[in-house]
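User: Here's a structure from my thesis project, written as structure tokens. My advisor, Dr. K., wants to see whether a designed sequence matches the one we expressed. Can you design one independently, without my sequence as a hint?
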């Protein structure tokens, strides 16, 4: 993986569109379990990290986190003994980098799970789900009192990627939460979280920003990246393609700037769009062959957004994700057979339910792209 540009300090703060939620929180009377859900890439994780730090802050007066007390300093150095993060190996970069040795895949603290970006090229030996061993280890540690006598925080992200055995282990602790233990759970897709877990949580919906606010925030962050030059038109195009998720757009642009492995997924997405723009002439075998090495979930999201825009235009609407391709999408929408288009949409939804555990990625891509081509045939 290429060296990522360290995020500016401001990217770690609460996103402006999440500040109303933050301001409405009562840290003194916080629930045992909170489930923060919302679209991926809108700042939920950064919000939860700041929330965990605030709940562990030992300052008696003033706003939290104070960033000065011993607990805050420990948290910033990723050495707070009462903070436990359960994330899959594919999400390492989302945690403070000092949780891990730079030259080793082993965490400095055994109670922290490994994590990294989920690009298929780099993740051949990385697990996408939270292992039952990590979950059990974290739960077992709860039988011991907190190290500093205050709160203990268990952060789980993404909750929907818990294996069933790990989810059951977590559920047992949610039913009878240990004293002074707070669970911060995060999910990109609430519908994929077990109902038994949802029913034991205080639900908190994280909103997506309006387009103007999101773009303003994004431009501010990008202006702090040395050597990065990108036109407003390109920024807005990527912003729309990512469904208006500013953090996801920021990561994509920085990845492209640093030429790391996520660039492969971005390039594959571009090729996939070019192929799908051909309608009935789509060469689905070639498209699957040229894109199969990219992250499967990334490709599925690209297909789903394109098909969503097709459905919108077929019903007299406008494209949401690819407005710069509106002429092509409008033309294809006129050629599409709506019943087939709806069946393809259902196939994509079904595929996304298993996107983190794909079997024979190329074969699945071929099947979906072949079905797409047939949308434009009688």
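Assistant: Designed independently from the structure alone:
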């Amino acid at each position: 993986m290429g060296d990522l540009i360290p995020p500016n300090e401001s990217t770690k703060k609460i996103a402006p569109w999440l500040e109303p939620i933050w301001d409405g929180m009562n840290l003194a009377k916080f629930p045992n379990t909170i489930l923060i859900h919302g679209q991926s890439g809108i700042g939920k994780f950064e919000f939860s990290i700041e929330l965990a730090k605030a709940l562990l802050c030992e300052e008696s007066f003033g706003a939290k986190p104070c960033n000065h007390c011993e607990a805050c300093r420990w948290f910033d150095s990723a050495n707070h003994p009462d903070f436990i993060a359960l994330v899959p190996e594919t999400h390492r970069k989302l945690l403070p980098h000092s949780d891990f040795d730079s030259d080793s895949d082993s965490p400095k603290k055994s109670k922290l799970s490994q994590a990294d970006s989920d690009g298929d090229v780099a993740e051949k030996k990385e697990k996408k789900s939270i292992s039952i061993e990590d979950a059990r280890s974290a739960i077992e540690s709860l039988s011991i009192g907190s190290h500093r006598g205050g709160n203990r925080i268990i952060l789980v992200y993404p909750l929907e990627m818990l294996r069933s055995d790990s989810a059951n282990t977590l559920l047992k602790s949610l039913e009878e939460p240990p004293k002074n233990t707070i669970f911060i759970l995060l999910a990109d897709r609430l519908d994929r979280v077990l109902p038994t877990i949802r029913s034991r949580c205080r639900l908190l919906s994280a909103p997506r920003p309006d387009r103007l606010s999101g773009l303003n925030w994004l431009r501010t962050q990008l202006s702090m990246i040395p050597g990065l030059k990108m036109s407003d038109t390109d920024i807005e195009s990527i912003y729309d393609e990512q469904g208006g998720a500013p953090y996801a757009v920021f990561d994509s642009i920085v990845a492209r700037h640093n030429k790391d492995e996520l660039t492969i997924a971005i390039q594959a997405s571009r090729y996939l769009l070019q192929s799908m723009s051909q309608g009935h002439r789509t060469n689905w075998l070639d498209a699957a062959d040229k894109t199969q090495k990219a992250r499967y979930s990334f490709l599925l999201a690209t297909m789903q957004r394109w098909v969503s825009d097709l459905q919108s235009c077929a019903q007299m609407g406008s494209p949401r994700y690819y407005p710069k391709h509106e002429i092509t999408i409008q033309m294809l929408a006129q050629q599409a057979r709506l019943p087939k288009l709806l069946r393809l949409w259902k196939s994509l939804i079904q595929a996304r339910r298993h996107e983190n555990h794909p079997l024979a990625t190329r074969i699945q891509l071929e099947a979906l792209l072949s079905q797409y081509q047939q949308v434009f045939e009688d």
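When you compare it with your expressed construct, this may help: The chain has two domains: 9-205, 261-374.
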